[in-house]
Amino acid sequence: MNMAYLYLLVTLFTGTLAGLFINKVRVPGGLLVGAIVGAALLNICFGAAYMPSQTKLLVQIIAGAFIGCTIEKSDVTRLPKIIKPTVIIISAFLILNLVTGILIHLSSPLDLVTSFMSAVPGGIIDTPIIAAVMGADGPTVAVMQIVRQMLGIGVFPLLIRTYNDRRNQFEDEGYREAYKEKRQKSNTKSRQALICTLIVASIFGLIGNKTGIPAGAFVFSIVSVLSLKLLLDFAYAPKWLRKFAQILSGCYLGSTIVMSDVLGLRHLLIPLVIIIIGYMANCFFTGMILSKTCGFSRKESMLITTPAGASDMALISSDIGVENTDVIILQVLRLVIVMTFFPQIISLVLHFIGQ
Predict the structure, then answer these.
(1) pTM across the whole model
(2) Which structural domains are found in the chain, ordered by start?
């Protein structure tokens, strides 16, 4: 057997085992974290980790297909009602992303593209691989994104509830009536729809890869599958597909890590502090703006600006007494818009400053 294929199989096996183990102990993004750790240890200890360069393209296509399937037709009908908070949220996150990225770059050895991508409020699976495609340090971005996700899931909701309780905001009579209708999810979950989704995502992902647009394969996959979903309601991406993408992404990122990268992690303390402070400030101040201008309660507005995933937010919001479905819809819109446009904006910024 060709040694490259043997190393590939060993890398996938090691990354999968480590991912399943870390996921078992309920670490956010456990499959990705475990796969990175498993492949990195394999590479550092034995120099035997290998993932082909085409892995980046495959992960972009799969991740793009999955994100394209997250928007529902019922979400689109809510757009006229939530366009104002959407604009506020995206503007605030963009400013946060650029300012935080510059501060990270100025206070650490990280290059500018890595600094910007570390602060992107996107998905922990998608962002590191897009960062790698753009020439950033993918494993470093993964560490920063994992910390952000852990904050969003484990710390921010507790802080929001404590802050809200201390301000005695139990009564929300002054706010607009919460939108409590459940999101109408598509029932299209057939094998045919999955095959169609993967074919469409692959075709347009390959086209996007040829355009020269930053993360073009990812963007084209999202747009094509989103169009398929909204126009024909024939797009489907099961959860196992995203788990598969996490393993692939983690194995690829882990296979690029060497001992000097591990030693370089000591330089991430200040960038992590900047990320934490930045997202906490955004949660408070942008939440306050949403509460004042868009009619959300304090808890709702702060949850909307919390950097967690839509599925996580669905569980978190109900746990702290928020039943407004718009919170979930806005989280979904945030992910789709951020992952589609922020890499392009960052690329333009880097171009204008000569990076």
Answers:
(1) 0.87
(2) 3-352 (1.20.1530)
